[in-house]
Design brief:
The complex is a heterodimer. Chain A is an alpha/beta fold. Chain A is 41% helix and 32% strand. Chain A is built from 4 helices and 5 strands. Chain B starts with 9 loop residues before the first helix and ends in a 9-residue tail after the last strand. The chains are: A alpha/beta, B alpha/beta. The interface between A and B is medium-sized, with 16 and 20 residues.
Chain lengths: 112, 277
């Protein structure tokens, strides 16, 4: 798994590629927790390069969402591959997360 | 049932459930959700009539009763569960609790539309839809039994956690998978019934380390996962299940934690979602 971070208008954009599973999810969890600890409650998570996500990975995303929501924050997801989108639909995660086709649209929604 | 695998008796089920409960953080998560999100919205009324479908050993209901009594002085409570061992445990716990409800009864019957007249302000189905053959009819019936403005709460497993294990092994282990039913299926049913709902997922884990060690607690937890007495299960298949369980769990400090989140559905009879969590 590879993780890259940039910041646009003070909003962190975390791009992940590869597999988010029991072995790799800890790295993503650490990065998200560090951002939240820095009071970054609005986060864009680009999953375009993610080919697989396990329930351990889903836990990391849900945990981040639950941490930022009380501060009126959100974790906005970008570009899910068909397999990952199917996992999100089956698990009900599509009812909790908003998914955007591009980073720009996700960022735009934070500005509204 | 396949050779060597037996159904759980009521008493065995109660024991296995208690073993599961002792290693699951779900009840704590539900309690926190009730306290922070749900019960505050029930305030402002003098009385309420509650129906608990599949009340089990009553752990959830005792928490809910205590929280509701803080807000609603006149509370009428009906609990329904066909497992008499569970009902006995529930009644004993209730007697010890010192809770003062206006009325409380436990009925040892499965849920069906002929069970009662309606008129409830709150009905909850907590981890019981697995055991009801016609789930759509049960949800529809429970909804119809609500007073206007009444709330139907459904707590149920998601397709993650135990459901993952069941999808892979339930049929191979016990020959059928009739208990296989998740929040995904509930969403389909609610959409078919055209009922508006809110949905959330509570983070919770099951410490499955005992399963990997093969001790007595682990044996009961695995029985609970597979809804069967696995004492006679083929050893190779048991090892395969445990290996899979380790694979889908996260490892921390030498222990294994299975992510087993709880799905919550919140449906108000008049369809108004304002003020709902």
């Amino acid at each position: 798994m590879e993780i890259n971070q940039i910041k646009i208008d003070d909003v962190p954009i975390v791009s992940v590629s590869g597999r988010i599973d029991g072995t790799t999810s800890k790295d993503l969890e650490t990065i998200l927790n560090e951002l939240i600890a820095q009071n970054m409650s609005k986060i864009v998570l680009d999953l375009e390069g993610v080919v697989y996500i396990s329930s351990v990975g889903l836990r990391v995303l849900l945990s981040a969402l639950k941490k930022v929501r009380p501060n009126k924050g959100d974790v906005k997801l970008v570009s899910l591959q068909p397999f990952v989108r199917e996992v999100f639909e089956i698990t009900g995660f599509t009812k909790l997360f908003t998914i955007y086709p591009s980073q720009g649209e996700a960022l735009g929604c934070f500005k509204v | 049932m396949l050779g060597g695998v037996k159904p759980l008796t009521d008493m065995e089920y109660a024991e296995c459930f208690n073993a599961f409960k002792s290693v699951s953080s779900e009840w704590m998560a539900i309690e926190e959700w009730l306290s922070k999100d749900f019960v505050p919205s029930m305030g402002g009324r003098r009385s309420a009539k509650v129906l608990s479908i599949g009340s089990g050993t009553g752990d959830f209901d005792l928490i809910l009763m205590r929280m509701l009594l803080d807000k609603i002085p006149d509370l009428t409570y009906t609990s329904l569960d066909p497992n008499e061992s569970h009902n006995e445990l529930f009644l004993n716990q209730y007697k010890k609790s010192g809770l003062k409800l206006s009325s409380f009864r436990i009925i040892a019957e499965p849920f069906c539309e002929d069970s009662f007249e309606g008129g409830f302000d709150l009905i909850h189905l907590t981890h019981c839809l697995y055991y009801i053959p016609d789930r759509k009819a049960a949800i529809e019936c429970a909804y119809e039994m609500l007073n206007p403005g009444g709330i139907l709460l459904i707590f149920h497993q998601t397709p993650m956690g135990i459901n993952e294990i069941q999808r892979t092994y339930l049929k191979r282990v016990k020959g059928d998978e009739k208990e296989l039913f998740s929040s995904y299926d509930i969403i389909q049913i609610l959409n078919e019934l055209k009922l508006k709902f809110s949905f959330d997922i509570l983070i919770s884990d099951v410490d499955v380390t005992d399963c990997t060690k093969g001790n007595e607690t682990g044996r009961k937890i695995l029985n609970f996962f597979m809804e069967s007495n696995l004492d006679g299960l083929d050893v190779a298949l048991r090892d395969e299940i445990i290996c899979n369980l380790k694979e889908i769990s996260r490892s921390e400090g030498g222990r294994y934690f299975l992510f087993h989140p709880g799905g919550i559905f919140w449906i108000r009879k008049d369809g108004q979602m304002q003020g709902d969590p």
